[in-house]
Structure formats: structure tokens, C-alpha cells
Amino acid sequence: MSAHVDDLPHCVAMTLAQLLLDLQSIDTSADQLTHRREHSALRAEFTAATERAKEWERRRTMLRARIDELGAVIEGAETKGAELSAHRLRLQQQLKTVIAPREAEALMHEIATVESQRDELDTEELAALEEQASVDDQLAAHLAEQDGVTTAVRLADTAFAEEVADIEAELAALAQRRDDVRAEIDDVHLATYDRKRAAFGVAVASLVGKQCQGCHLELSAAEIDTVKDEAAETGVADCPDCGRLLIV
Fold first, then answer.
1. Which of 71, 142, 161, 214 could crosslink 244 through cysteines, CB 3.0-4.6 Å?
2. Is 167 helix (H, G, I), strand (E, B) or coil?
3. C-alpha to C-alpha distance for 77 and 215, rounded to whole angstroms
4. Cβ atoms of 219 and 240 closer than 8 Å
5. Helices (H), 96-186
6. In the beta sheet, which residues pair with residue 208?
7. What is the DSSP letter of 240?
8. CA-to-CA distance for 46 and 37, rounded, in angstroms?
9. Sequence-separated (6 or more) residues with CB below 8 Å from residue 1
């Protein structure tokens, strides 16, 4: 009976120390999973695929807009050309009826001006037609890429969603384990753990030899004696260098 009583504080101390280590391990795993989710390579691939799709859509819109612009230029040139042709015809008919040389000369000059305008218009319309044909070809080639672009987005989305689902499942399991472990720790040590975790991220570290595994600094002989005295009942002390909970 006496031996059992003597062993009881040691068992309690080991339990608290192990609980704190388990809690820190769970929280560290959760932090790593959260970081993995937020910085996933699959997330980056999905983002890149989405950006390529947006760029594809922007180019499609640009090509279609240019085709419409050129169509308006061509239509305007045809309308204006018809007006100039009609005007030239009227001038040519009028020229047949005049007798005065000066009046005939003025009409001939005006006809030449109209023909020059019509030539410029024809050149502009031809350039627009050639560019429109080129842009039509570009649009056709661009549209042929649509299936590949949308498939890349879908596959990247599916892969990333599956990864996130797996991570969320692991986080849910860790959250349940975390609640179970926290329920076994007394309020005082739990409050201390939460405060140090908020300050350091990693709240609990083991003492291995003379070194704190939290700050990786070696404790002096006097410091080791101090933390061992502090941890005599609970197995837990404060690291004199970094302030983390030190499992001794």
C-alpha cells in the first residue's frame, strides 16, 4: 500500500505532462494542416488555371469586339461609297449638259475629288476586310482552345476540393481529440497553455538533456535544478529562457 501511495504523484505528473505534450502535438498538427490548406500547391494550380481561363475569356471578348468594330468600318465604308458613287454619277450627268468651259472644268475637278475619296474609302474598306478575316481566323483558333481551358479549371478545382475535404476531415478528427485532451487538463494549466500558445505558437517543449526543445538553448546547471524543483509535483515547469511550458 505504501509503495502505491508513493507512486501516485509520479503517475499524476506523467499524466499531466503527457496530456500537455499531446495537446501541443494536436495543435501543431492542426496548424500544419491549416498551413497546407492555405498554401497548397493544388490551390496555386487552381488559381493559375482560373487566371488562364479569365485571360482566355478576355481575349475572346477582345477579338469579338474587334470583329464588330471592323464590321462597322466596312458597313460605313460601303454606305459612304454608295453615296459617293451616286454623287459622282450625278456630276457626270450634269457634266454632259454644261457648255461653259469653266463650269465643265469645275465639275471635272469635283468628280476627280469624289473619285479620290472613293479610292481612299475602298483602300480603307479593303484593309478592314483583310484584318477582319485575320481576326476571324484568330478567334476560330482561340475558340478551339476552350475545351482545354475549361477542362484544366475543372480538374484543378476537383483536385483542390478533394484535398481540402481530406484536410477538413483530418482537422475535424483533431478537433475532437483536442476537446478530449483539454477536458483532462485542469483549468489552471489549460489557461497557462492557451496564454503561452497565443504568445509563442508552440507552448510546450520537452527538456532533452540540458536543452529546451522550444528555444533550443541549453540550461545551466542551476537552471536545471530550478526547473526540476518546479516540476517535482506536476512534471511541468517554465523554461527560464523562452518561457514555454517545459516538460521535465
1. 214
2. helix
3. 79
4. yes
5. 101-143, 146-183
6. 211
7. T
8. 13
9. none
**For the range 179-188, what are the long-range contacts, defined as Cβ-Cβ under 8 Å and sequence gap of 24 or more?**
181/19, 181/22, 181/23, 181/26, 182/23, 184/15, 184/19, 185/16, 185/19, 185/20, 185/23, 186/16
Tell me how far apart the alpha carbons of residues 242 and 212 are, in angstroms, rounded to a whole number. 9
Q: Which residues pair with 246 in a beta bridge?
A: 205, 237
Instruction: Please check whether residue 239 is in contact with residue 14, taking contact to mean a CB–CB distance below 8 angstroms.
Output: no
Cell of 72: 462597322
CA distance 114 to 85: 8
More confident residue, 14 or 75: 75
Give the percent of the chain with pLDDT over 70.
94
Phi first, then psi: give them for residue 147, nearest 5 degrees: -60, -40
Rounded Cα gap, residues 87 and 229, in angstroms? 112
Residue keyed to cell 492542426 = 30
Average confidence (pLDDT) over 56-85: 97
CA gap 192, 203 in Å, rounded: 9
DSSP state of 172: H
Does residue 211 contact residue 56 with C-beta atoms inside 8 Å? no
Between CA 115 and CA 76 the distance in angstroms is 17
Indicate if the pLDDT at residue 10 is higher than 60. no
Instruction: Point out which residues pair with 206 in neighbouring strands.
Output: 247
Cell of 235: 512534471
Distance (Å, whole) CA 84 – CA 77: 10
Question: CA 233 to CA 10: how far, in whole Å?
Answer: 7
pLDDT digits (tens, 9 = 90+) for 99-141: 889 999 999 999 999 999 999 999 999 999 999 999 999 999 9
Amino acid at 3: A
